[in-house]
Amino acid sequence: MQHYLSVFIGTLTPLLVIINPIEVLPVYVALTKGKDRARQCAIARNACLYALGLCIFFLIFGTLILRLFGVPLAMVRVAGGIILTRIGFSLFMPDRSGADLVHPGAQEGNIAFVPLAMPLMFGPGAIAMIVGMASTVHDWPEDLVPTAVIAAAICATMFITYLCLHHAHRLTRFLGPLGIDAVTRIVGFFVAAIGVGLVFDGALAALAVHGLPRR
User: Fold this and answer.
1) d(Cα 127, Cα 59) in Å, to the nearest integer?
2) Fewest C-beta in 10 Å: which of 39, 138, 181, 215?
3) Which tops the pLDDT comparison, 102 or 200?
């Protein structure tokens, strides 16, 4: 039971940091500005459902994709770590506003999917994270419990993200522009640290596969 709890927390925490609902808030508020409350809630719900569906898809088929392309887990960790490090630096030292994602010609119908669900919620970092977790479930589908635990962590992450979007205007008023900027930079620092850790672990695993023992 303790092992499954560790898997749950180990999936929930980094995935929540990668998705970073606080970072999504300014874009969501800008995209839904002028719409009634019911429509705003519908967009938030649909965006989280789309992102959830993408996460579950890569959870189920992630290992198959790795085997299909012959990509070892160590390389996924290194690539995912590089992506996370880049995302972390971009959050810590932003060079452009998230408002750039708001296209004047964007139609209301696809706002929930692009850019909210993808790439803001479900981007390269989330893909690398979920595929990496999926590859640790060696006996799927015979052993469904680890997969169910990871899926539960993904659902919890999306539920927390939905709550943040549902109360977006309250959170933005409470934190203010400076507060959101500070939280974004702090989160970016830890995302970069997670990315460096993934690169380090992946490099050690790759070296071990090629004959250099891990200490």
Assistant:
1) 9
2) 215
3) 200
